[in-house]
Amino acid sequence: MMNVLDGDDRYYPAELSEHIVAGLEHELKNGISLRIEFYVKNLSKIRPKYYKLGDPVDLTPETGHGRFRLEPESGESSGFEIYIRKDNGGKHSWWFNYSNSDVHDVIDGIKVPRNLDQPHTVNLDYNYRPGQNWSFNLSWHYHSGWPYTQETIKFTQYESGYLWDYSYDMLNRGRYPSYHRMDARVCRYFKTNLGRLSTFLEVRNLYNRKNVREYDYEVAEIRPPYTYSLTREAEYWMLLIPSFGISMDFER
């Protein structure tokens, strides 16, 4: 792969990764299963990366300011996960998992968290099936805030106006607030001559949590004689979202 848009003019050798995984699975009583897994992944020969500071999932990273070339010396992903599940075919079933992880690159001898590093992750899922025609699901998701690079804007005033320059703190040393949300889903099934018709109503982010996606810096006020007010505003992921769907499973 060659990053032509960033002015790169060479191909790099394949990156190397070494995986070490150890796990334990055990069936407990009453249909409960338990799995514990530990892992370490070491990365080497990492290609240069181009980061746009700010939005961690920006769909147009080549545009705007704050795009930098980084050359990691190595990288590592390590942690463990606990997964517990109960489903014995009855009306009630649930599962839970917790993971603790550390994902970073080493740049100039310093450990730098990757953009989507989240040390703590929790998922809870509960399902209720009163019969063959209905199912109700409730799930909760949580993870630590992703890293971000704090930025400041420096203003320089001239007689005829002003200019501003962006400056940045150490890469990915800040953390967004923790992310969490709850989703609810109701499904209704219908038996037809063609097969099974499934309908669902889902509400995502049930309690309308404002999860920070990024911080945006704006000049809130400019007027003669060129005074300004600089503000930092949070941009959020989508709030409460209802959705509805229909699907058909045909039978021969």
Which features characterize this protein?
mainly beta, 10-stranded antiparallel β-sheet, 252 residues, Maltoporin, Chain A, two-stranded antiparallel sheet, single chain
Could you characterize what this model shows?
This protein is mainly beta and 252 residues long. It has a single domain, classed as TonB-dependent receptor, beta-barrel domain (Maltoporin, Chain A), CATH 2.40.170. 0% of the residues lie in helices and 63% in strands. It has no helices and 18 strands. The chain has strands at 16-27, 32-44, 49-52, 67-70, 74-86, 92-107, 110-113, 120-128, 134-143, 147-148, 151-158, 161-168, 174-175, 179-191, 195-204, 212-223, 227-236, 241-250. The strands form five sheets. Strands 1, 2, 5, 6, 7, 8, 9, 14, 15 and 18 form a ten-stranded antiparallel sheet that branches. Strands 3-4 form a two-stranded antiparallel ribbon. A two-stranded antiparallel ribbon has the order 10-13. Strand 5 (74-86) and strand 6 form a beta hairpin. It is extended and about 75 Å long. The mean pLDDT is 86.
